[in-house]
Amino acid sequence: MNIASSPLSQAYRPLRVVHVAEDQRQPRHTAGRMVISGRMADVCAELDRLIALENRQPAYAN
User: Fold this and answer.
1) I need a labelling partner for 29 at 20 to 30 A (CA). Which of 4, 17, 22, 40 fits?
2) From first to last of its 62 residues, what are the pLDDT tens digits of the chain?
3) Cα angle value 24/38/53 (rounded, 5°)
4) Are 22 and 32 a contacting pair, CB within 8 Å?
């Protein structure tokens, strides 16, 4: 049986976005990391959304 055609692989898998805060002393825009899981199309759409959101933010001065 082909795994890609199995009913389990075709079941709906929601997109999950998890933010992991590693250092609370850093500014919010630089602290932590992110894990995104789900269907490839959903993950790519979320990454595109995050890029668009970041492009709307003012640049941070270091």
Assistant:
1) 40
2) 455 555 555 567 789 988 777 766 666 666 678 899 999 999 999 999 989 988 987 776 55
3) 50
4) yes
